[in-house]
Structure formats: C-alpha cells, structure tokens
Specification:
It is a single chain. The chain contains 19 helices and three strands. It has 313 residues and is mostly helical. The chain folds into three domains: 34 residues, no CATH class; 107 residues; 117 residues, no CATH class. The longest helix is centred in the middle third of the chain and has 22 residues. The N and C termini lie far apart (85 Å).
Length: 313
Amino acid sequence: MDTQHDGVTVARSDRRTCLPGGALTMTTTTKTTATDPAGEDYTSGEGLRALLHRLHDAGPGAWEHDPVAAELMTYAAEKYTPLARKHGLDPWEAASAAFDVMRTRAAREADDPWAVVTHAVRITCIAEERGQGLLCSVHQARRPHISCFHDPERLSERENTLSDYHPAFHVTDPHHHDNDEPDADVGEPASVTGAVEDAILLFMLLGWPEGTARPAIEHVCEALARIGSRTGTYEALRRDRHARALLDVPAASWTVLLRVLLGRTTPGYGATGEGRGILLRLLIGEGLPVLLGNDGLVATISHAAPHTRRRGA
C-alpha cells in the first residue's frame, strides 16, 4: 500500500510467516522515496529524464526559479560528495559539473541520465584535480598533451641534488674554438682493449693487487661481451658465487667492482657518470685523470680493495 505525505511516498508491504507449531507472524516492510511536491522522483533515471525535459521546455529561467531544480542540485551535491572528496574538491564543485551536463541534450535523451551525469562529473573532477596540480585551467588539463606532465616540484623535495636527475645536467658537449687546443682529458673514443687496460690500471693505482684486479675485470668484460647488456651482466655476475670464489674476491669488493665497472642500473642514474660506469666512460673518451679527479669514485674503489678489508668482513 502506497501513501504520500508532503512529497514523501511511503510504500508498505506485509508478509506473513508460519512458525513451527502453527503460530503466524506478520512482517511489515516500509520503503520511503523522496519526491518533490509536484510528484517528480528525480532520483530515478526516468524521473530525471522527465524533469530535464520539463526544465528544457520551460525555457530560460526555469533552472533559476523552479524549486524542484534547486532540490535536484542539493541532491546532486550529496550524491557526488564522496567523488568530490576523493579528488580534493568541494561537493558543490561536483554539483556544478552535474548542472552543466544536465542541461545538455545527451543527458536529456540518454537511456540512463544519471549514468551520463556521473561519468561526466568523474571526468570533470579528474580534470579539476590535474588542473590544480599543474597550475593551469581545467580546459587545459583535459588535453592529453598537457595532462601528461607531472605536477611542479620544489627542488628541496628530492633527496638528490639537481644535477643527479635533471636531464639538462646529464650530458654537456664540448665546444672548441679553432685556435684552441682540445682538452687533453677529452679525446677520441678509446678502443675496447685500451679501456679495459685503463680500468685495470685505475684499480691498481687505488690499491687493488694486479693479480686480483686483472682477472676480475677481464672476467666482467667477457661476460659483458657475451650478454650484451650492462644491466643483465650486473644481475648475472652479482649472483655468480662460483666465479667470485675462483677469482678470490670478497663479496663486498665484488659488488663494488661490478657497480663501478658497469654503473648503477637505477633509472635515475642512467645518464650520470655513476650510472654509466667507468668502462663506458673510458670508451667515450674520458681519461684516467678525469676518473682520478672524482673523489667519490676514488674513495669507493680504495675502500673496497681486498687487502684493506679485515678477515671475516
């Protein structure tokens, strides 16, 4: 049985249940549906479609003066509150997006108007959030070539210095004038054999015995030529305990040797000197004076020299 009081429709249904022993019980279910005083249930798809058609046919000013339209906007703000808060927005911003969609022909003639409105509000909330993050308008944030950028960051928000990750500081091409002599430290790309010999000499100058440095570095170079990838070579040799035992290199020294020769495999270091590794740096023309001028590299190789480590370390 349905009754209506002050714009609220109450539907009641009774159900009888027979209990063991013959006793009867009656269960009453009450369902309340919010409607406006004119009897329009805009919470359903059909009711919203009918209301949108009526407001459209009423002409200009209908959305401003119609009391049902005001109730519809209040309902939309409550309906899309979770979606708005998910994207850091005010519920009425989501209601404003819903208002823009409800006035379109696509929403009026859709089979499920609420589905069309919800989809459009979700897209608008995403664009609003991206616009706030990118410091641009919502219209620009909707464009793929704008939204693909990351949000602005302060330099202090990163632990590493700017030169470690910014592409502008990764590679600098040398510029020589006609009358200037080329820098002695920057020459033509060296041969593979020369780069290997320079790498061995670098380790020997920093305290590594030749009997340890030469076979270890040559083994790494052979594996690199076979595998063809610095990342793959590093991962393969890092787990090769048999080779490390034959070369008689401590575990910590072996790890440092691989990282220094092949470079860091972390994407953030890909174009830095630490990410390239000394083998690649020697191949592209950097000489031993340049490598020996890197205090961090010198300290890393020196401290990892096998004879400087204590037994059992």
